[in-house]
């Protein structure tokens, strides 16, 4: 009976060792799968980033011409407006200066309306 118990204990110990090996292998397998998943995710993220970057560059290239043409049109319009303003200034400056001088030189001496005459 002691021999049988000894054999049973030995079998249990061997089964326990085998189970711990299986558990260790499972842990290693899980760790490896996590590493593989991280690597795969990093690759997918990089591919997605490259695709979006190319998409952005294409969008930027297609709209760059319209920005330059809009800037050119705005510059032309600004030059036209500036010329109009300069013409108006040159045309009206003599009249404005004359009106200002007339107002400054024209002085009507009057008593202030709040000043009352003192009757003696």
Q: What keyword list fits this structure?
A:
120 residues; mainly alpha; 1 helix; 87% helix; elongated
Blueprint (SSEs and pairs):
Blueprint: H1 2-105
Structural account:
With 120 residues, the protein is an all-alpha fold. It is built from one helix and no strands. The model has no long low-confidence stretch (mean pLDDT 88). It has one helix at residues 2-105.
Kindly report the average pLDDT value: 88
Structural class: mainly alpha
Helical content class = over 70%
Number of helices: 1
Give the SSE order as H and E letters: H
* Percentage of β-strand residues: under 5%
The major pleated sheet works out as: none
Number of beta strands:
0
Distance between the termini: 153 Å
What radius of gyration results from the CA coordinates? Answer: 48 Å
Runs in which pLDDT lies below 50 for 5 or more consecutive residues are: none
Query: What's the overall geometry?
Result: elongated
């Amino acid at each position: 009976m002691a021999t049988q118990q000894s054999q049973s204990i030995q079998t249990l110990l061997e089964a326990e060792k085998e189970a711990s090996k299986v558990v260790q292998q499972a842990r290693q397998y899980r760790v490896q799968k996590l590493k593989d998943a991280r690597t795969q995710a990093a690759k997918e993220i990089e591919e997605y980033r490259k695709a979006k970057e190319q998409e952005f560059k294409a969008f930027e290239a297609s709209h760059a011409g319209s920005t330059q043409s809009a800037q050119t049109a705005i510059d032309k319009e600004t030059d036209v407006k500036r010329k109009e303003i300069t013409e108006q200034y040159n045309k009206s400056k003599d009249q404005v200066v004359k009106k200002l001088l007339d107002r400054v030189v024209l002085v009507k001496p009057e008593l202030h309306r709040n000043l009352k005459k003192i009757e003696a």
